[in-house]
Amino acid sequence: MSIAARTALLLTFALPAFGQITPRTVAFANSNPEGSPPSGAAWSPDGTRLTFLADDDKIAKPGDLIQIDARTGKASVLAKAAQLDAFSAPEISEKDRDHRARYAAPDFLWASDSKHLLLDKNGRLWLYNTTDSTGLLVVDTNTGSGDDPKFSPDAKYVSYLRNNNLYIHSTSSAANTALTASTADTILNGGIDWVYLEELDVRSNYFWSPDSSAIAYLQMDEAKVPQFPLTDWIPTHATIDQQRYPQPGDPNPTVRVGVVSTTSGATPQTRFIDLPFSPGNDYIPRFGWLDPNTLYIQVLTRDHQHLNLYFADAHTGASRLVYTDTDPKFLSFDHEIDLLPKGRFLTTSWRDGHTHLYVYKYDEKHPLDAPAKLDHQLTQGDYEVDTVAAVDAKSQTIFYVSTEGSPLENNLWSIRIDGSARQKLTTSPGIHDVLVSSDATHFSDIVSTATSAPVASLCAVHQPCVPFWKSTPVAPATDVTTTPVTFTAADGKITLYGTLTLPAAASSPHSVPLILNPYGGPTPTAEARNDWSNGQFFNQLLAQHGFAVLQVDNRGMGGRGRDFLQVSFHNFGPPQFADQIAALDQTLAKNPQLDPKRIGWWGWSWGGSFTLYAMSHTDRIKAGVAVAPVTDWRNYDSIYTERFLGLPAANPDVYKVDAPITNAAQLKGRLLIAHGTGDDNVHIANTIQFLQPLIDNGIPYDLQLFPRKTHSIAGPESRNELFNRILAHFETYLK
User: Fold this and answer.
1) Does residue 657 lie in a domain region?
2) What's the confidence (pLDDT) of residue 267?
3) Most buried of 305, 393, 517, 654 (most Cβ within 10 A)?
């Protein structure tokens, strides 16, 4: 699944039955003892300052709006938390909080004048003047539904979504205009449904024209999408929330792109673009403005084998196919398009075996007259381009993040559009999270390794970086060692990477039980990276209780190129399992203190499904934990599942062989399943269905439900209970 729960966020454990937990394993879902690196940062449009809300007290008080001067690197408070808290926010439900967290709704947006901010307080929108610290309530709703707010490019309007319709509000008056007026609750004008949000990484479905005269938006009609009931059993009278959720083979949302004028008066009219595609099957993952008169629109076919780019006339609705990328299995996860000056655009493709950048040219004055032509391949080599961080038209420079040098690390690079002057801008080892300023002269960098906690720095391009935030050092766990490891895959050729966490003092033969904790499924990037937030805290907790933990990235996962990931094509089980067993055997051979008769396995989401698959395909696993697992791939969503397994009607044997439930009656070892009853990603129906064959065949199991909790099972109490149960399960059945 696309959201892989991570085990880095833990809580203080209270385990009287199994002893006390050391300070190192004090977990930090809501109180990270090392501090939380700045998140949700944004550069002011003029590029003079980096801004973010403080998460801890290292720079100022939590909730203060911090600004870092680009010239000096000095931090100061732009607005105090008390000032911002004065702007009220409505109460929202746990479901709404989870939605907004995944929706990545920003805490604030800069206006183009670099003087005004738009504050999003759970859908209540405030216009904040940084000069005199005053605020104006722009949108006041009782439902917190002022979603996806934006400034118009000229900053004269604020746009937002409410009740599935698109609105604009003047920033200088009380004028408020509804641009769409659909009344059916299945019509989303500019909104995002669950499956596009989850599987296509869509974070916005409407965009202002460069001249602020119009908005292009995606209209989604979910009328034919089946509903799934999410039941809340906590009230005396249970309630049901009907979720629109397309499963493999079901009708997808019907989509089309419309253009509506923002200056046409009281009754705006939408013109829809004419595209030659299947609206109820195919997807529109990305679209936007090529220029004030022309749109670009991507269409991804339902089989994920064709990505077509169209240019469209915003005034007539006419369109033309200008570019196609194809793959006989499935295309990469990346669907981004970046516009370049002088009639060019930048796109990614893994046509040469790795995800790289390609420059295409088109007729800038007459975009619809002819297809775009490949100008040149910009990057190449045995590595992956993760993302394009920025495009600077003035210097003709592209900034991108890639894994060149090691699949376990990444760095920020710059290169001219013509392919010259390629430079590596970050040099320290680890994983870099960068944000480039609008003028492309500075960038922020949050970097960490598996053994060094995050450090946030402000960097001038081609100049040394100046740290402005550092983690609080926490004494390392002296009784635990974590080391990187490599293995040979089951094919006898490919190198696999992972980590092995061991109790340092245990050395006698067969004295240590071993727990495997793979994710296993398709991912955009590698999981076993040289990164601080890779779950090592819980691994160390398990090691402090006498367990070894092995985490390995098998074939079928991401970050290693097209062929490595496409092992998962029509194959959710055998090759992944074979690689894990190969890594297990190599680990046991090199570490005689590990006990081959006391092997555990646990995972979350795809990793939970993998746990069930493993326990039903070998008797070597003595205890396993599956958190929020898919037990039958016909239960999961259309976009994700069909990308790898195709349509159920066309590939019934694939769905049957790869479903953990198919071999539930052969399950060996003691199983614990944990699931949130409000999980809108992997529905609890998966767990309920899997329990039936266990009951039918007299197979014992343990079950832990979390009322109302979604896929992440978030919150201090729930996380504490979950990880206590996991530890207790392995203590009981592996010791």
Assistant:
1) yes
2) 76
3) 517
Between CA 118 and CA 135 the distance in angstroms is 9
- Of 107-116, 280-289, 438-447, 569-578, the poorest mean pLDDT is in 107-116
For 373, the 3-state DSSP assignment is strand
Asked if the structure places residue 625 within a domain, the reply is yes
Share of the chain above pLDDT 70, in %: 92
Report helix, strand or coil for 453.
Answer: coil
- Asked if the structure places residue 711 within a domain, the reply is yes
Report how far apart the first and last C-alpha atoms of the chain are (Å, whole number): 32
Q: Distance of alpha carbon 283 from its chain centroid, rounded?
A: 19
Average pLDDT in the chain: 91
**C-alpha span between 562 and 151 (Å, rounded):** 39
Are the CB atoms for 648 and 632 separated by under 8 Å?
Answer: no
- CATH code for the domain of 624: 3.40.50.1820
Residue 32 vs residues 57, 60, 532, 718: alpha-carbon distances, Å: 12, 16, 13, 17
For tokens 């009907």, name the residue.
242
Q: Is the pLDDT of residue 531 over 70?
A: yes
Q: Is 700 exposed, middle or buried (0-12, 13-18, 19+ CB in 10 A)?
A: exposed
Inside any domain, residue 288: no
Under the banding of pLDDT at 50, 70 and 90, the label for residue 412 is: very high
Element (H, E) at 365: none
665 lies in which domain range? Answer: 23-28+474-734
Secondary structure E strands in 99-182: 108-110, 116-121, 124-129, 134-139, 147-151, 157-162, 165-170, 176-178
- What is the amino acid identity at position 503? P
3-state secondary structure 627-691: ECCCCCHHHCCHHHHHHHHCCCCCCHHHHHHHCHHHHHHHCCCEEEEEEECCCCCCCCHHHHHHH
Alpha carbon distances (Å) from 357 to 398, 526, 568 = 10, 19, 24
pLDDT digits (tens, 9 = 90+) for 240-282: 999 999 999 999 999 999 999 998 776 789 999 999 999 999 9
Q: Write down the pTM of the prediction.
A: 0.93
